[in-house]
Amino acid sequence: MSIRFTSAGDTAFNVEFGETIDRATNALVMDLHARLKAAPPPGLVETVPTFRSLLVVYDPVSTGRREIQAAVEAALAGGGTTPAEGRLWRLPVCYDPDLGPDLTELADQLGLTAEQVAALHGSVEYFVYMLGFMPGFGYMGDLPAELDRPRRTEPRVRVPAGSVAVAGRLTTVYPWESPGGWHLIGRCPVPLYDGGRPDPVLLAAGDRVRFEAVDRAAFDGIAEAASAGRFDPASLRAA
Amino acid sequence: MTAFLTVVRPGLFATVQDLGRFGFQELGMPVAGALDPIALRLANALVGNPQGTAGLEIALLGPALRVDAPSIRIAAVGPMALTLERDGAAPQPLEPHRSHTLLAGDVLRLGAVDGASVACLAVAGGFALAPVMGSLSTYVRAGIGPLGGRPLAEGDRLPLALDAAPDGPDVELPQPPDYGAGPLRVVLGPQEDRFTEAALETFLSATYRVGKQADRMGLRLEGPALEHRGSADIPSDGLVTGSIQVPGNGQPILLLNDHQTAGGYAKIATVISADLARAGRLRPGDSLSFQAVAVEDAEAIRRRQEQAIAGWIRAIRPVRPAGGVDLEALYGENLISGTVDIVNGGSDLPLL
């Protein structure tokens, strides 16, 4: 395997493990992230894991690229480990066309029924490859191949918070109202970001997620409890 | 007792910022922080604060703030008009780049910011606000930071940390900060190999203009299109302040402090850290060009810049009384051998 170092100015560089989005490549990213977090070299600011590369951020006043890259190479030479398995979350989702306005159209494009799309979406365990786009936005995969569609040609200006969405072989839950180009197929009543929680961001890179279908009444109940601060997200952790 | 700056008028876009919220980008949390970190650091130095203390970043038109405290020292750095209203007297202009001691009931009006996108105001001791994830930077897009993560609003009361406010005379910077001039320096990459040779040549020789879509997240640049080798899309990877990404239309976007933590467009280059304050000060219509340097050179330039900033801060000196003689400077330069008559209102030195 060839590892590439690419420059992001004089405060950061990427350690690239490949060009593709897959679990094996991402495991190498998460492994290096964990090692550098456990034993940060002086002047390391933080590391940011993405699909197939780790962004290493450093302070060019107290250290330099040469020193930090040497520390990264030493960490890489330390031999592979198996990163601890991430947490497993069971996220409720209501696949109601009112809450997932693209559900019917996407089903038509795929030659499936809305029920089949929902069932397929809920049929697998997803892996959180990385967070990005907005605080708490998790890029999760892999979506069943039957649901693989490119992003919408016309992105929406406003996607409601909690929208459960798919694009390509990925799925996500929008933590915030924001613009977005993914297909909206349902909604999750649990906030993926809540400033009132000690850890405001629910998911972390490396976590696993299962979506569990709930009906509209259950959705409304959880949403109400969550907005009143009476919903403990720990209850979503699988035993 | 409690002490506040009360927002009498909010201005157009004033936010609390420090030097950024690092350490949470793996959760998708943007760094945010002052667009012009040099201005914030110098403003803090003028009021005796640690350089990274949170202050107000003022864009466009500043707020009016009433002092609801016995007194407070403030300093502004940047191209912004300041006026003071005291005891119902006619508003008096205040100079930037020095500290001023304000008294209870004073109203400080921060005017238009003209000549750069932002200016900074620091208060002695900083604000007694609760950090969010270790930082007082405001990320407006997701409402993260003090004041619910939003710009100042009328009636806001900004609590002052008077206990932490250092005492001392009013002081000034001998000169406004020197940001340098010429092309913005960049390190090519991380995806320079996604662009044609012609695109790299164009990027390093053409003049670009900051378009109308310019905010704390980034600047859309207008100029000759940059052609990709193949697709503009890459698997999303990490971004930094200063990343220059190029979507399929070939028009570069220079990312600033509120940038997303990751993005899926190829990035042709990254502005070096010593030039980020210059980039953060750019406004729509401004022209800019780029010059490539190696990483080691960028690091050396940044270290020299830090030495220069330390020098400016060492040069901070007590403000000479209006019309008086600058004794500090005279003694410092060892020019006086005899006695001096200080004539109030006199403007020239009587000897030498």
Write the layout of secondary structure elements.
The complex is a heterodimer of chains A (239) and B (352).
Chain A: E1 4-7, E2 12-16, H1 23-38, E3 44-49, E4 53-58, H2 65-77, E5 88-93, H3 103-110, H4 114-121, E6 126-131, E7 138-141, E8 156-159, E9 163-167, E10 170-173, E11 178-180, E12 183-187, E13 208-213, H5 216-227
Helix pairs in contact in A: 3-4
Chain B: E1 4-9, E2 13-17, H1 37-46, E3 55-59, E4 64-68, E5 71-77, E6 80-85, E7 92-94, E8 99-103, E9 107-113, E10 118-123, E11 157-159, E12 171-172, E13 184-188, H2 197-205, E14 208-214, E15 218-222, E16 233-238, E17 243-245, E18 253-255, E19 262-265, E20 267-271, H3 276-280, E21 287-288, E22 290-292, H4 295-314, E23 317-318, H5 327-332
Parallel strand pairs in B: 13-22
Antiparallel strand pairs in B: 1-4, 1-11, 2-3, 3-10, 4-9, 5-8, 5-10, 6-7, 6-9, 12-23, 13-20, 14-15, 14-21, 15-18, 16-19, 17-18, 17-20
Protein name (chain B): 5-oxoprolinase/urea amidolyase family protein
Domain Carboxyltransferase (chain B): 26-308
Pfam family, one (chain B): CT_A_B
Structure commentary:
The complex is a heterodimer of chains A (239) and B (352). Chain A is of the alpha+beta class and 239 residues long. Chain A has five helices and 13 strands. Chain A has two domains: 4-77, Gyrase A, domain 2, CATH 3.30.1360; 88-236, Cyclophilin (Beta Barrel). Chain A starts with a strand and ends in a 12-residue tail after the last helix. Chain B folds into three domains: 4-172, no CATH class; 184-306, Cyclophilin (Beta Barrel), CATH 2.40.100; 321-352, no CATH class. Chain B is 14% helix and 30% strand. Chain B has an eight-stranded mixed sheet. In chain B, strands 7-6-9-4-1-11 form a six-stranded antiparallel sheet, with no helix packed on it. Residues 333-352 of chain B have low confidence and may be disordered. Chains A and B meet through strand 2, strand 3 and strand 4 of A and strand 13, strand 16, strand 20 and helix 4 of B.
